[in-house]
Specification:
429 residues, alpha/beta, 7-stranded mixed beta sheet, 4-stranded mixed beta sheet, binds ligand KE4
Length: 429
């Protein structure tokens, strides 16, 4: 595959941008490659600057659940573009998207838009600390909640991929009140809450973990988080930046029937434009300035172009049958990859929820970060590069997830399964 233009552009980018990328997750160092420079995309396909075309399962790391350049998203954004790009003043579009989210996610009575998932989680934690008057926050190893100082402890995603501590530059005092526990370890969580529960401001969790690879919550885990936080007057925050409107139209909280106190959103809610959000019960959100005294602000928060993309995306997702189709496509894909690995004699563990899936090259079940780190990273690198050669664009890390979209066709899924079969059977030879 000719990548000469990407190679040239990457060299140029490295002169001005650290690592040549504006997010470490895009670096391909962990799989021994370099990032491709993309020229255009439509539906489930992306084309790089050398004219190579790929079936895309990264979808801008989740936002493009309708695929690239969905007609209604483009139409809505172009309509707003004719009026302006940003006003720094309220627009009706913000209210429309806010109302849509409250209709789709009942636990959200009020919502504040920001520009990224990081801003959403950072603000939700600040709000929880203010609302409870407490300082301790609990997260889980391998979960990634963006790059905010207090949450970079034992984080997943690019922090895990690059195997870096994640906290250089974060003063110890800032993270002394951040406890990171083992995901799915109910007894461990209960004992910490027994000892410190009355000082815990919030527990923040990815209800389906997608940043250590994809790890499902074990039976009773989320229920226990809900029970213990209610018992101790702590807030339960669901970080649904990745799972939001992807694992179910009503998010993971609908899938598992758990009502968190606060929910963080990102990715799909912006339809490919920079949007994050946090929301929850009115009495909690009422503490946010200017209604309350907890400060959080943003120049481009609620940007009309981004709101238009988000509205168009959620309106499409609400249509009957969309999720059933997404789910069956994802199931066929992940079972096809599983069978390809097993036929090649390669240990594999897979999982899926709605329009997201995970594939670990691992001989055991993966229920937490420790298990995930036992995966065969060499096999993953060979699989990643082999699939790329065959025109299948995956996240360049074992510690990321697979995303499907309404734009992926049955033919795309068949081609992907075929590619996996050829690549994986070639690895062990
Ligand atoms: P952003 O600040 O990147 O918009 O959102 C941070 C975030 C928060 N919470 C969860 C559960 C997330 O998955 C993320 C971001 N996800 C990564 C991919 N695993 C974004 C990719 C990147 O960092 O470039």
């Amino acid at each position: 595959m000719d990548n000469s233009k990407s190679v040239k552009m990457y060299k140029e980018a490295e002169q001005y941008i650290p690592g040549g990328v504006n997010s470490p997750a895009r670096a391909c160092s962990s799989v021994g490659g370099r990032p491709l420079f993309i020229e255009r995309a439509r539906g489930a396909r992306m084309t790089d600057v050398d004219g190579n075309s790929y079936i895309d399962y990264v979808l801008s790391w989740g936002p493009l659940i309708l695929g690239h350049r969905h007609p209604s998203v483009i139409e809505q954004v172009e309509k707003v573009l004719k009026q302006g790009t940003s006003f720094g003043a309220p627009t009706e579009l913000e209210t429309i998207l806010a109302r849509t989210v409250t209709e789709m996610v009942p636990s959200v009575e009020k919502i504040r838009f920001v520009n990224s998932g990081t801003e959403a989680t950072m603000s939700a934690v600040r709000l929880a600390r203010a609302y409870t008057g407490r300082d301790i926050i609990i997260k889980f190893d391998g979960c990634y909640h963006g790059h905010g100082d207090t949450l970079l402890v034992a984080a997943g995603s690019g922090v895990a991929t690059l195997d870096i501590p994640g906290t250089p530059g974060v003063p110890k005092e800032i993270i002394t009140n951040t406890l990171s526990l083992k995901y799915n370890d109910i007894e461990g969580f209960k004992s910490v809450m027994k000892e410190k529960g009355d000082r815990v401001a919030c527990v923040i969790v990815e209800p389906v973990a997608g940043n250590m690879g994809m790890v499902m919550p074990q039976k009773g885990f989320l229920e226990e988080l809900r029970e213990q936080t209610s018992m101790h007057g702590s807030l339960l925050i669901f970080d649904e930046v990745m799972t939001g409107f992807r694992v179910s139209p009503g998010c993971a909280q609908e899938l598992f029937g758990i009502r968190p106190d606060l929910t963080c959103f990102g990715k799909v809610i912006g339809g490919g434009m920079p949007v994050g959000a946090y929301g929850g019960a009115s009495d909690i959100m009422g503490r946010i300035a200017p209604q309350g005294d907890v400060y959080q602000a943003g120049t481009l928060s609620g940007n009309p172009l981004a709101m238009a993309a988000g509205i168009a995306t959620l309106e499409e997702l609400r249509k009957d049958g969309v999720f059933d189709d997404l789910e069956s496509k994802t199931e066929r894909l992940v079972n096809g990859i599983k069978k390809a690995a097993e036929d090649a004699g390669i240990s594999v563990s897979v999982s899926m929820a709605g329009a997201m899936a995970g594939v670990f090259f691992n001989s055991g079940d993966v229920t937490n970060f420790e298990d995930a780190k036992k995966s065969d990273l060499e096999t993953f690198a060979a699989y990643y590069n082999g699939m790329l050669e065959k025109g299948i664009y995956l996240a360049p890390s074992q510690f990321e997830a697979i995303f499907t979209s309404t734009a992926h066709t049955d033919k795309d899924i068949d081609l992907t399964i075929q590619a996996a079969s050829e690549v994986l059977s070639g690895i062990n030879r």
